[in-house]
Design a protein that fits this description.
The structure is a single chain. With 177 residues, this protein is an alpha+beta fold. It folds into 2 domains: 75 residues, 2-Layer Sandwich (Alpha-Beta Plaits); 71 residues, Alpha-Beta Plaits (2-Layer Sandwich). 27% of the residues lie in helices and 40% in strands. Strands 5, 6, 7, 8 and 9 form a 5-stranded antiparallel β-sheet that branches. The chain is elongated.
C-alpha cells in the first residue's frame, strides 16, 4: 500500500457571526486530532458573516474529513480551499529588534529592501512591520539572524480567491461577502 503524501491547504470558511463559532471550529480540530497551522478570523462586508482562514495539513483522507466535519457545523455557510494558483495570501508580522546606534542603519536598509516599515523607534530597538506571503516574511527573518529579535508577532494567513468568479453570494443576504 502506498503512503499518502502530506499536503498543506488553506481553507476559507464563511460562517454566521455568532458567539463561540471560533471556539467550536477549533474544538472540532482538537477533538479529531487535526492540527491548525494558522487561523485568522474577521467580519466581512456583511456584519452577520465572519470569514475564517485556516491553514492545516494532512494526507488526502484527513483533509477530506476536515472539510466534511467543518461543513457539518451549524453556523458554517460555505467552505472552500484557496488554491495558491487561484488565490492571494498575505500575512502581517511585527518584529521588535534590539539595535544600538551602530546597528540601526543595517536594520533600516534590510527593512527598505523588503518594503517593510519602521513603526516604532526606541533608544535600543526598532519595531518593524512587514506584509507579504509567508516566504517573504521567512526570508526577512532569516536575514535578521545576526540581530537579536526581542519579540515577534505574526497574524497567520489571510487570503481571497482571485477575480470575481469565486465570489460567494449567500442566500438571504443581498451583500457580496
Amino acid at each position: 500500500m502506498e503512503e499518502q503524501q502530506v499536503k498543506r491547504v488553506v481553507l476559507q470558511l464563511l460562517v454566521d457571526n455568532t458567539f463561540g463559532i471560533l471556539s467550536r471550529i477549533s474544538g472540532l480540530f482538537s477533538r479529531r486530532g487535526y492540527n491548525i497551522d494558522s487561523i485568522t478570523a474577521g467580519v466581512t462586508a456583511d456584519p452577520g458573516i465572519t470569514r475564517i482562514t485556516i491553514v492545516t495539513h494532512g494526507d488526502d483522507d484527513i483533509l477530506d474529513q476536515i472539510e466534511k466535519q467543518v461543513a457539518k457545523l451549524v453556523d458554517v455557510r460555505d467552505i472552500r480551499q484557496l488554491r495558491p494558483e487561484d488565490s492571494v495570501y498575505r500575512e502581517l508580522a511585527m518584529i521588535k529588534v534590539r539595535c544600538d546606534a551602530q546597528q540601526r542603519q543595517g536594520v533600516i536598509a534590510l527593512t527598505n529592501i523588503f518594503r517593510a516599515g519602521i513603526i516604532d523607534v526606541a533608544p535600543e530597538s526598532l519595531m518593524i512591520e512587514i506584509t507579504g506571503n509567508q516566504a517573504k516574511i521567512d526570508a526577512f527573518l532569516r536575514l535578521l539572524d545576526g540581530y537579536e529579535i526581542l519579540e515577534l508577532a505574526r497574524t497567520g494567513i489571510a487570503g481571497l480567491a482571485r477575480g470575481i468568479e469565486n465570489v460567494v453570494y449567500l442566500s438571504g443576504t443581498d451583500r457580496v461577502v
